[in-house]
Write a structure and sequence with these properties.
Blueprint lengths: L2 H30 L10 E2 L7 E5 L2 E5 L4 E5 L11 H10 L1 H7 L5 H13 L3 E4 L7 E4 L14 H9 L1
Antiparallel strand pairs: 1-2, 2-3, 3-4, 5-6
Helix pairs in contact: 1-4, 2-4
Length: 161
């Protein structure tokens, strides 16, 4: 394995751990607060307003004082599947990686390394009905976001607040 491949492999393992951490927070929040998953610009997990999330398109942006993570909801709410774009964004938005990783500044560079790591058996390439460039870490337990589902009436009442 080449040095760049090892760096990306370790970074993706950390990305998946971060996604798991935030997904567990989201699932706890979803159990406790009806209306949690309703679209808002920014919503906080904590009273101190240090951990926040913002839903977008088919995913969610999550931020703590130390980390910024953007992930998509893959099939059935799976959050640990990722695209090269998510990894590039993770590298660029977390300054601790900039010095260690050099200049991985192109999606194509990351995609080539991911394909190599698939052939070495570290990742699985996944298929989506929307895009075919999702990957998952082999051996990792899938992580799923389990939102509380609002009824139509609950959602309307939520927006009227």
């Amino acid at each position: 394995m080449q040095e760049n491949e090892l760096k990306i492999l370790n970074l993706i393992r950390e990305y998946v751990e971060d996604v798991q951490f935030f997904t567990e927070l989201m699932n706890k929040q979803s159990e406790n607060i009806k209306g949690y998953q309703v679209y808002k610009i920014i919503e906080y997990f904590d009273k101190e307003k240090t951990l926040y999330y913002s839903f977008h398109g088919i995913g969610i942006y999550l931020r703590s004082p130390e980390k910024k993570v953007d992930c998509d909801f893959y099939s059935k709410g799976r959050t640990d599947a990722f695209q090269p774009w998510s990894i590039l964004k993770y590298i660029k938005s977390n300054s601790k990686f900039n010095n260690d990783l050099g200049n991985f500044d192109e999606i194509d560079e990351i995609y080539v390394i991911l394909k190599s790591l698939v052939s070495l058996g570290f990742f699985s390439k996944m298929k989506s009905k929307y895009q075919d460039d999702y990957f998952s870490l082999k051996g990792a337990n899938p992580v799923f976001f389990k939102p509380y589902r609002l009824s139509f009436e609950e959602e309307m009442a939520y927006y009227e607040k």
